[in-house]
């Protein structure tokens, strides 16, 4: 993989942040198959002030840069210049840009925020996973890679909780690499 050898050279841990259904689904038709204000708050708490790295499709699905965070969007030739984001034409470049920006701003981590293509290419580089396990198994077309227990150890868990306007209960899990 092109990005091998990067981990540790970025000066900040790589943390994958994702909401994942019981069946591994994270997305359906360019969107998320649930409405979870509790998880949006959790996501904001985790990522505020940290550089975030995402794929073009996730950026288009969010629709605008996330405020208070350096937004790095990885895209081949498809995405032109967009105000408020740093565009990277390879994942490696994206992680380096995020590392540089984050170190300059005293960030604690590089937050990789999806989607499926980007998680698949970064899970082997990641130091930590912040997984919101969603208590539902929806139909979908985009998946989180398998979290192999031989590589990952659960170190924190909160929940299940279900806010009034959440469409499912969620459990917040932290995994660290063994
Ligand atoms: N549940 C969650 O926590 C969560 C989080 C994020 C997203 N999602 C969902 O996931 C879905 C989107 O995921 P996705 O897998 O379809 O797309 P994605 O990973 O968001 O973006 C894919 C795009 O990123 C670019 N890309 C990927 N790898 C690259 C590389 N190595 N170098 C350069 N560019 C690269 C390409 O852009 P170009 O085509 O421009 O080259 C590619 O088409 C949506 O349904 C979204 O709602 C869910």
From TrEMBL:
InterPro entries: DHFR (IPR012259), DHFR-like_dom_sf (IPR024072), DHFR_CS (IPR017925), DHFR_dom (IPR001796). Keywords: NADP, One-carbon metabolism, Oxidoreductase. It is an enzyme of class 1 (oxidoreductase). GO terms for biological process: dihydrofolate metabolic process; folic acid metabolic process; one-carbon metabolic process; tetrahydrofolate biosynthetic process. This is Dihydrofolate reductase. One of its GO terms (molecular function) is NADP binding. Key enzyme in folate metabolism. Catalyzes an essential reaction for de novo glycine and purine synthesis, and for DNA precursor synthesis. Pathway: Cofactor biosynthesis; tetrahydrofolate biosynthesis; 5,6,7,8-tetrahydrofolate from 7,8-dihydrofolate: step 1/1. Belongs to the dihydrofolate reductase family. It comes from the Bacteria. The keyword Oxidoreductase applies. Residues 13-177 form the DHFR domain. Its EC number is 1.5.1.3. It catalyses: (6S)-5,6,7,8-tetrahydrofolate + NADP(+) = 7,8-dihydrofolate + NADPH + H(+). One of its GO terms (cellular component) is cytosol.
């Amino acid at each position: 993989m092109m990005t091998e050898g990067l981990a540790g050279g970025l000066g900040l841990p790589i943390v994958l942040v994702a909401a994942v259904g019981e069946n591994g689904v994270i997305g359906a038709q360019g969107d998320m198959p649930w409405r979870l204000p509790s998880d949006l708050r959790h996501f904001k708490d985790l990522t505020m002030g940290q550089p975030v790295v995402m794929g073009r499709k996730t950026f288009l699905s969010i629709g605008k840069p996330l405020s208070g965070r350096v937004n790095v969007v990885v895209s081949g030739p498809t995405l032109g210049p967009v105000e408020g984001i740093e565009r990277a034409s390879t994942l490696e470049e994206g992680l380096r840009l995020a590392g540089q920006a984050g170190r300059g701003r005293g960030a604690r981590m590089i937050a990789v925020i999806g989607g499926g293509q980007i998680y698949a290419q970064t899970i082997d580089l990641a130091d930590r996973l912040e997984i919101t396990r969603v208590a539902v198994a929806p139909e979908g077309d985009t998946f989180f890679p398998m979290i192999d227990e031989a590589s990952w150890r659960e170190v924190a868990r909160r929940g299940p909780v279900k806010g009034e306007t959440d469409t499912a209960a969620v459990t917040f899990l932290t995994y660290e690499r063994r």
